[in-house]
Amino acid sequence: MKKNITFLLLTLIFYLVLSSCKNTNDNGKLKIGLMPAVDTAPFFYAQEQGLFTKAGIDVELTIFTDAGNRQTALQTNSIDGAMTDMVALISNVAAGFPIKGTLSTNGSFPLLINPNFDYQTNPKIGMMEVSVSNYLVSEYMKDQGYSKVFINAIPMRLEAVAAGHIDMGLFPEPLASIGQMKGLIKKSYPGIPKESLDILVFTNQSLKDKKSSIKVFHSVYAQAVLALQENPNLAREVLIRSIPNLPPTVKDSIELPIYTNPTVPSSEFTKKIMTWTAEISKHKIELTDKDLFDTSFIK
């Protein structure tokens, strides 16, 4: 009897000590900020299929239509992580904002062209200044002359192309397909860039406090990607259901990326984007892969 009581006491002490070693801030809940882009398909597919719940985590996905609001949500710790891009990641870390990239997401960025453009003059192309849109246009038009027109707000950029105030503009899918549906010409550049410019980031605080949940999150993402690789039409369907105000008529026009297994950009590609970002922002930037990425969640 005494031995049984002693065993029970020791067992209770063991579990008390074990539970005290766990990070009490990791409650299994994650808040992720997304943008209305094709990158979101694996996240929404995982949510619809209940994969996050089955894996034991509670994930709240929020679409931000304004990058500034998404940035504010990250800075105020209203969300744990968010979809962004390499230019923004490099700029933010260089400025001292404590975030790290953990996973490349896959986007698609065609040019939309006004149908009245005659191709006889150098086009005026709308983009955001310190952004992937500027970088991609420089890559797309590497051997051609063009004029940059900085229009940060995507709806205003789209309106400018449609009205003929500018000749072209760069837009993410599926918004590019909406523009195509309205009569604009969509032009894609397969193979540019060679690696994804889009990336999922988490605040350093969340990486510290919610490490276990974030690890599970990445594992579930990998499952969702596998399903979309096997049946890309699942991505189209989940995008139509999940992105607000996306008309079902554009489903078959959406240019899907190849959803890749979890990874982060290579050192070579990262250095290339960092050099470009430093030149365009006129700031000296010297960061290492370790400063920018936490790869522990995809190993």
From TrEMBL:
Domain SsuA/THI5-like: start-end pairs: 39-233
Presence of keyword DNA-binding: no
InterPro entries, sorted: SsuA/THI5
Subcellular location: Periplasm
Main localization of the protein described in the UniProt heading: periplasm
Annotated signal sequence range: 1-24
UniProt GO cellular component terms: periplasmic space
Annotated keywords: Signal
Matches recorded under Gene3D superfamilies: Periplasmic binding protein-like II (3.40.190.10)
SUPFAM superfamilies linked: Periplasmic binding protein-like II
Family annotation (PANTHER family): ALIPHATIC SULFONATES-BINDING PROTEIN-RELATED, TAURINE-BINDING PERIPLASMIC PROTEIN
Family of this protein: Belongs to the bacterial solute-binding protein SsuA/TauA family.
Protein name according to UniProt: ABC transporter substrate-binding protein
Organism per entry: Thiospirochaeta perfilievii
